[in-house]
Amino acid sequence: MKSAGLSTRAQAVRPSATLAVAQKARTMRARGVDVLSFAAGEPDFVTPEPIREATIRALNEGLTHYAPTLGTPEARAAVAEKLTSENMIPGLGLEHVAIGVGGKHCLYLAMQALLDPGEEVLLPVPSWVSYAPQVQLAGGTVVPMPTTGETGFKVSPEQLRSAISPRSRIFLINSPSNPCGTMYSPEELRALAEVVAEAAASMAPRLVIVSDEIYEKILYGGRTHLSIGSINAVAQRTVTINGLSKAYAMTGWRVGYSACPGDWGRELIAAIGRLQSQMTSGIPTFIMPAIRVALESCDAEVQRMADAFARRAELIERRLRQIPGMRFPSPEGAFYVFPDVSDFFGKKDQSGHEIASAIDFADALLTEQAMAVVPGDDFGGCGENHIRISFACSEDQINAGMDRFAEFIGSLG
Q1: CA gap 402, 373 in Å, rounded
Q2: Which of 102, 171, 173, 200 suits a disulfide with 256, CB 3.0-4.6 Å?
């Protein structure tokens, strides 16, 4: 049978490099290879018991029917209360909150609800691999704002100001950052917010902020997180995206949420509801009670996991800095380091193949040392010279992986 073909849209979207590397590692493991994976951004902890127990109770009580598309009133109210009391975002009620199928789907829906064809999304790069495809699928245009390790992979107010045009629709920010492991200070966020407020009052009246804060609770070195949506000048034009996947070790549960205050925020959330009703409807009803339990009763468990990540961050930084040629900013949040490996381009692996890119580097590392990392090419900007190493794994695995990594670097000729 002759192929019926695919849509231009489907053909244009590239697969996630993160998931591709993780899949290759799983395939090797299935063949009996002892692969150490530092690829996927997934905590190795089990979801805290109070959250699991709340879901078991909900199942036993028969909460197995359809839920409201945007979540139960109780779950949405719990999110609104969390964002109000903890993140200091003003003017939020449950009508300003949408619960979706993970943070990724919440971001996708925000792009669909906000972008018209040709409108621009201002995106600091390197950035998470799914941002640009989501903009593309919504018909938008990415305006990349390049960053480097020397600046902590952060854009300056001047850089943002120069990138804004009358077509600017979204300034998309992720702090702490995947893949970079760095974050903006409260002072830096206030300076960026001032630029957005100025531009929105003049040349870019439709400009809004979409802030991905999924790693807000995984911070190091006494750093504090500030939600840019708490800044009065931009509060009612900031869409905050978050979820339970990372801080609560709930990646497989697929619980994300978006929020925006004010009359426009209510209008946006209603639009997201219409879109979601035609796509996924709501998440499982029996998960809804667990959202409130997670947000209201699991601070101690979250802190315990964050403390473990902090110890791992210190360990992997110490081990990496012992390896000649490793250049990277210290991890400040999330659970990634993003070293520049371009010093090794032009060298050859043990099979005699020349390493000409981060993809070659990661492939050779996986082949020769059974250690999986993510090449930085798909993250954009200077990412093509970097690899992402996730340390969301045990200290024993980090030490074993760094032994293999050092041996690999030493073998390049």
Answers
A1: 12
A2: 102
